[in-house]
Amino acid sequence: MNCPKCGTYLLFKNKRCDKCKEDLVSYRRILSLSNKYYNDGLMKAHVRDLSGAIVSLRKSLQLDKKNTNARNLLGLIYHEMGETIQALSEWVLSKNYQEENNEADYYIDLIQNNPSKLHNTNQTIKKYNYALSQAKSRNYDLAIIQLKKVISGQPHYIAAHQLLALLYMNQGENEKAAKCLRKAQKIDINNTVTLKYLSEIGVSPNAVRLDKETMRKNLTKNNVEEPQFFSPEPVIRDGKISKWSLIYLAIGLIVGILTVSFLVVPNMRKSISAEYNTQAIALGEEQTRMAAEILTLEDDKKDLQTTVKKLKAQIKKVEEEAVDETIYEKLFSGISKYIEKDMDGAAETLLKVDVSKFESKSAKSLYAMIQEKTFPNMSKKKYSEGYAFYTRGAYEDAVKTLKLTLKYDKSNVNAMYYLGRSYQRLNDTKNAKKYYSMIINDYPNGPRVSEATRRLEELKEE
């Protein structure tokens, strides 16, 4: 472990730092407790209690945010549940705390080097958000269609299974809801939302876990023994046929022939005739019923064609109003450049991202973290370029570059001052006063206040 005060590497058994003499007893307890929660999360993940594992791993990271093992495992669990953005967030943060020998590199590469997977992830997020908005707008049929597409593309997306089950429950289709919840429970066996929905539709969560072997055993117990058949004793004894047996056999044949001729055959004829009449009547009724059904089906066909037209119109409208697909692609591109140490490229890419359209808190948090690491340095570089344009007398180029500087860091007072000077040189008094006033009003203790005040007085005298 490393000393929390001076960063010196120490053995875990040390009670004090050899260099700065810092007391390490409490720090050791915190690290031990963090590892204990990590081990608990690992055990729960092995038995597919993913929700319980997330709780334990979050506690582990609250105690030690640099526990990269816990953070990497948390990312894997999010990825298993279909939450790819949250998984990437955890892995990028893990790499930020431990740049060398970190398994997060391997996990990030699996996604980064697979453009089709990134595209599918983006499509899944878009479709799920659209389905959620349609569900809120009470367009349940359209939401169900969209969620089925989400699940076909991402079978482990637990949130999609749960939302689909909720929509089925709302329509009273509890059997379909139970199937969705069973699939969700196979992914995360103790998910609180899944268990709650199961109890609401009257399905015991334990009943869902019965396997096929148990069902087979239960069926076997209920099987009834098959009846046994016995053959009569033979009429042959000691290799000879009895005389009386032949007489009885002849009498039996005569009685049988007479019975068939006078009793069975007439009855069979009557039965066949009655059956024929019954079948003829039934066939006539069936033809009448089928004719009525054909008429009904034709009406249903017309109704379905009308419904299909309406749905196609809605889908077309949705496609026209759909959120720009490049939002998350730009974020992923910025993340990739940041991982590759291309800080300037990451800053330029993230500047084009519209954060207001993000619905994921993890995506916003990840954007803020990379912005904090890249934007200040990029602002300094752009200021140097803008100042160079100013000194060469290229005031229009200076204005363009210095404005970009403020986009990366709106508190760059030097950029504000030389923006005012550039506008003053271009005889744009209005904008020059604007930037001088910003320095005086917003940064009264800044290094350029006196110069901005003097320049503003000059403009007033003109």
Describe the structure.
This protein is mostly helical and 462 residues long. The protein has helices spanning 25-46, 50-63, 68-80, 84-97, 104-112, 115-136, 140-153, 158-170, 174-187, 192-200, 205-208, 212-221, 243-321, 326-339, 343-351, 361-391, 395-408, 413-425, 429-442, 449-461, and strands at residues 236-237, 240-241. It has a two-stranded antiparallel ribbon with strand order 1-2. Strand 1 and strand 2 (240-241) form a beta hairpin. Helix 4 packs across helix 16, helix 17 (395-408) packs antiparallel against helix 18 and helix 18 packs parallel to helix 20. The relative contact order is 0.05.
What pattern of helices and strands is seen along the backbone?
Answer: HHHHHHHHHHHHEEHHHHHHHH
Beta content: under 5%
Q: How would a crystallographer describe the biggest sheet?
A: 2 strands, antiparallel
**How are the strands of the largest sheet arranged?**
1-2
Oligomer: single chain
- What class would the helix/strand composition place it in? mainly alpha
> Can you count the beta strands?
2
Low-confidence stretches: 210-241
* End-to-end gap: 67 Å
